[in-house]
Each structure stands twice: as C-alpha cells, then as structure tokens.
Amino acid sequence: MAFGNGALLPAGPLRETRSRLSTVDVVVSNGLSEYEPIVKNAFSMQLVADSFYNLSQPLQKASAADFSGKKIFAIAGIGNPQRFFNQLEQLGLQFESRAFIDHYQYQPEDFAEIDADIVLMTEKDAVKCKCFARDNFWVLPVHAMFKDNLMPTILNKLNK
Prior knowledge:
The chain is of the alpha/beta class. It has helices spanning 81-90, 123-129, 150-158, and strands at 27-30, 42-48, 51-54, 61-63, 72-76, 96-99, 118-122, 137-140, 143-146.
C-alpha cells in the first residue's frame, strides 16, 4: 500500500489526508516511485552523496576511498537510519553502526564507548554534535537528484 496504513500522524505516516493531493501541483517523494502511478504529477527523487567533510574542520574533505583500512562507526538519528547506512555501503564502506531515534539529542557520553578511527553521521545529526565534535567526526552531505521531467513541470507552473 503506497500510503502506509492510510492514517494521519501519529497513528500513521501521513501528514495530511489523501484528499489534499488533488489540490497540489506536484508531489515529490524520496525514492518512493510507487506513488507515480497513483498520484497525478508525482515525481520521485533520490538523495545522493559522494564526499564527506570533517565536522571540526568543514573545509577538510574526504572521499570514501580515503577511509579505506580505517575502523569506521556510523550513527544516524533520522526517520530511516537504514537509508543512510545503505548509502555508506553503496560507497563501498565497511562499518559498525548504531541507529538512534529520530530527533535524538546527542550528548558527548553517546560517543564515549565508540572505538573507531572515523565516526560518520548525517548532516542532521552533525548539527546536534557540533558543540562537542571530535577530529574524527565526519559528515556525509546529501543533495536531491530529481528526474529530468520535474523541472519543466515546475517552470510551466511558474510561467502561468
């Protein structure tokens, strides 16, 4: 079922009723292409990433290859932590991981027992860890990659 159990938050995944879809110009879903046949003007996007930056020194960049041979630990306190871990695997990284609840408020103690050369996290997590960042905290920024046909649809709406 493309809309989960059909219930609104907190009982289900929906923020608004399905009837709201008839009043919007486009619907963009994160990698959930099953909406496309169901919803008029539905487009999927994918979050992509290819390089990391150091949380303590954001101008310092690294690729996944730079972490080769290092002991890596990944954390994620987002709605779907496995999506982040899958991205790291797609980049060829081997790591241990820990998923935290969404919107988790990290504390320095959360990292006390982590014995790793590199600690990887999402940008959302990095915001919450910046005030106690260590030199081995690295962040994977992502950007949205949209299907080619989304931009003409948006431009057409703007020109009306």
